[in-house]
Amino acid sequence: xxxxxIITFMxxxxxxxxxxxxxxxxxxxxxxxxxxxxxxxxxxxxxVFTSGKETDMKEEELQKIISWFNEYPADRVTEQPDFDYSAxxxxxxxxxxxxxxxxxxxxxxxxxxxxxxxxxNDVKGGMMISYSFLDPSEELVDYFKRE
Length: 147
Fold this sequence. Notes:
It is a single chain. The protein is an alpha+beta fold. It has a single domain, classed as Dna Ligase, domain 1 (2-Layer Sandwich), CATH 3.30.1490.410. Helices cover 40% and strands 28% of the residues. The longest helix has 33 residues, at 2-34. The termini are far apart. The chain crosses the membrane at residues 6-22.
């Protein structure tokens, strides 16, 4: 009887332990899928929008921005499904709009508290996703403030 109780306990314990271990990893893997690097050779159009002004990006600036973006750790982002892209309601101060040769679009937003938000449809099967950086990206914030 005691042996049966131990076996039953182990059968119940193992799935619970596995669920606990892998449920945390799911969140980590989800963030890695959100923040994918941008291939600078895939960029078709890149424009910056600040204070109602539209500016085409120079190749040198674009390479710097993409490098800073790509260097940001993928495990330091969080999904923001309710992010509103309109400047009036979300406090967007500047936007970098990137169109890829593959028809994908990536928008990088600077909002008023120096937070960086990203909206893109080039990952997750073409569905538009939104996420934010958990830590400030000083280089991106400084760039947007100069524009």
